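Colleagues,

For the teaching module next term, I've prepared a clean inverse folding example: a structure given as tokens, and then the sequence designed for it. I'd like students to try predicting residues themselves before seeing the answer, so please don't circulate the second half yet.
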């Protein structure tokens, strides 16, 4: 061997060129001569990481840092390895040290995002938000920081922020790489804290005309950039906000002059707001209640537009003012001859109306084409399955606008987190994933984006839901997912096994949930992971009250019946148990409300029930998925590190905190050894 510096330089050349065996041999020769050579130790660790030996990588890199602790690159690279292993707390410590030594080394935005994630995981959400808002001022386009902010804002209600932070939230709301619904509470909190809102809610409750007695406040509210962004990107899940929006819609409809069946422009009403409100009504699937007076004017408008569509002389973009008004109350594709509206190029319509053309007409046509060509992997024979299928054909669920693009993670990292004491298993590539009951595609698309080197098969009963899912996957450019029509009860005919199976919110809608679960268990690889979501009997007592209310009051599961039911619930006094349904996001959309309180088939479970099911299926419970605050409360009650994998402890926790799982239990399991 030549001198150590020469050998080290040659080893690095081999490493950079991908000649890993030659590089490893030289690193080891150097360490035989000089065991404390921190450069050789560090790069031998980095090489181990590149070939998938991450624990060995951590050992070597930690030894290098122990010898020479003041090198930013060492801490940064160790942080990257720890992050890849899912050890975020340790990764954050390494990144923090790297930033202290050299604030500009590596990828500071990723490092800060991980540090913020650790703060969030420890329950220090405000610390995470402070870091992220400040970092985004300097790096507004950072994908890692924007993703981290969206995740940190989840479920957080904000009363006020500075102008720069408000601008960041508006920008984030319009970002297709995050889900605005996740941080909807933050946006609604900011909007409700506007002085204009407090005036408008009083006006709405009194039934007065805001354009007459609160015109300044109405204009301020309707032109607020955050409101315009939020209305077109998420379901507005807040009763008071819906009341204000419904009242503004009503007053707009009554204010607009309709001549010969068509609307006459009114410059006092911002076109951008009307278009944004129409998009909100579409996203919520027209769940807002309308008075008979409004419906009469809507019908006049509908007839006028349909008549105009039949006239050869009609210039279709000239109908825009009438169409956007109609889009406040119903689907444009239900107009007679609606396809004629697709003849003009989309760009020929006004800028604010173009998204409505895409969402209501172009997307509708594409989904009809997709639905006609969908392939089935099974028949749908079961009577209950057919009934449930009919519901979701009428109301595809859950509709969504955008999805969080997570940092891709290998399945091995998830397996290590869920089974920390098990020998590490390397899954074959591509990782095979089954999503049984995929609905409108939000869940399987998140998996396809977030799981490294995977291939997803997503199955559902509803052609309409699958068509929506397929179109969204196309728009996002996702190619590692296949959507198929099928029934869980018939999936045993699939001649394959899956490394990951997820079925959230599905089995409890089967006539016999265990029959479906048993089939899924049979499709799981020996080392595979399974995630199941089931309704909690204890946490959903309020929903059961709402289901009984809808049933005893005779509300049908039709659009009119659902609107009337929602109106009746909102008219109940504060504190009434049925109003508990209004705390669910699903309540604020048509398909969501039907799924929530009018589903044709539903079973409820307790955690002891689930323990019994797992035992009968030969499955092992690995842990419940829940937010940071719940995890902190659970750890405070049961400090033992093994408690999280005990359903007995979780049952005791739910007894003490009965509303913890009001959405549903979501938990991980796997096959028992042997």
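(Answer key — instructors only)
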């Amino acid at each position: 061997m030549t001198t150590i510096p020469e050998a080290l330089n040659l080893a690095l050349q081999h490493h950079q060129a991908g000649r890993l065996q030659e590089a490893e041999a030289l690193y080891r020769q150097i360490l035989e001569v000089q065991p404390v050579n921190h450069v050789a130790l560090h790069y031998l660790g980095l090489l181990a990481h590149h070939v998938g030996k991450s624990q060995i990588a951590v050992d070597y890199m930690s030894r290098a840092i122990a010898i020479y602790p003041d090198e930013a690159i060492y801490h940064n690279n160790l942080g990257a390895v720890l992050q890849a292993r899912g050890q975020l707390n340790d990764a954050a410590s390494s990144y923090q040290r790297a930033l202290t030594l050299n604030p500009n080394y590596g990828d500071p935005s990723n490092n800060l995002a991980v540090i913020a994630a650790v703060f969030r995981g420890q329950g220090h959400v405000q610390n995470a938000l402070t870091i992220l808002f400040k970092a985004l001022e300097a790096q507004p386009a950072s994908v890692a920081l924007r993703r981290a902010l969206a995740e940190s804002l989840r479920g957080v209600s904000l009363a006020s922020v500075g102008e720069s932070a408000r601008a960041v939230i508006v920008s984030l709301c319009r970002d297709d790489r995050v889900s605005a619904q996740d941080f909807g509470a933050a946006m609604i909190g900011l909007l409700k804290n506007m002085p204009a809102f407090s005036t408008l809610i009083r006006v709405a409750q009194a039934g007065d005309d805001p354009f007459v007695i609160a015109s300044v406040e109405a204009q301020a509210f309707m032109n607020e950039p955050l409101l315009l962004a939020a209305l077109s990107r998420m379901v507005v899940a807040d009763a008071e906000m819906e009341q204000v929006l419904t009242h503004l819609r009503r007053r707009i409809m009554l204010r607009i002059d309709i001549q010969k069946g068509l609307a006459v422009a009114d410059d006092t009403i911002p076109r951008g707001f009307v278009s944004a409100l129409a998009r909100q009504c579409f996203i919520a699937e027209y769940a807002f209640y309308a008075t008979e007076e409004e419906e009469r004017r809507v019908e006049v408008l509908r007839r006028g537009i349909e008549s105009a569509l039949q006239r050869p002389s009609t210039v279709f973009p000239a109908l825009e003012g009438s169409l956007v008004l109609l889009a406040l109350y119903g689907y444009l594709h239900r107009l007679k001859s609606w396809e004629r509206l697709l003849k003009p190029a989309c760009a020929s319509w006004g800028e604010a109306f173009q998204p409505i053309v895409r969402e209501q007409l172009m997307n509708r046509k594409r989904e009809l084409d997709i639905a006609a060509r969908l392939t089935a992997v099974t028949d749908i024979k079961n009577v209950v399955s057919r009934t449930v299928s009919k519901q979701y054909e009428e109301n595809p669920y859950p509709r969504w606008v955008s999805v969080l693009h997570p940092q891709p993670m290998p399945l091995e990292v998830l397996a290590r987190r869920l089974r920390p004491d098990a020998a590490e298993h390397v899954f074959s590539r591509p990782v095979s994933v089954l999503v049984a009951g995929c609905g409108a595609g939000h869940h399987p698309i998140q998996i396809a984006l977030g799981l490294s080197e995977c291939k997803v098969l997503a199955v559902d009963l509803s052609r309409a839901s699958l068509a929506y899912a397929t179109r969204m996957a196309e728009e996002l450019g996702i190619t590692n997912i296949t959507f198929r029509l099928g029934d869980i009860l018939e999936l045993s005919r699939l001649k394959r096994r899956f490394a990951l199976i997820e079925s959230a919110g599905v089995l409890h809608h089967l006539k016999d949930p265990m029959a479906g679960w048993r089939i899924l268990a049979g499709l799981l690889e020996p080392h595979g992971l399974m995630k199941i979501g089931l309704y909690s009997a204890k946490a959903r007592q309020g929903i059961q009250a709402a289901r009984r209310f809808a049933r005893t009051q005779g509300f049908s599961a039709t659009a009119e019946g659902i609107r009337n039911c929602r109106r009746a619930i909102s008219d109940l006094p504060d504190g009434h148990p049925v109003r508990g349904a209004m705390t669910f996001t699903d309540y604020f959309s048509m398909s969501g409300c039907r799924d929530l309180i009018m589903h044709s088939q539903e079973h409820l479970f307790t955690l002891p029930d689930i323990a019994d099911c797992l035992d009968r299926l030969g499955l092992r419970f690995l842990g419940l998925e829940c937010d940071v605050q719940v995890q902190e409360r659970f750890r405070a009650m049961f400090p033992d590190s093994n408690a999280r994998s005990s359903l007995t402890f979780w049952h005791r926790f739910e007894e003490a905190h009965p509303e913890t799982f009001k959405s549903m239990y979501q938990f991980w399991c796997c096959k028992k050894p042997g």
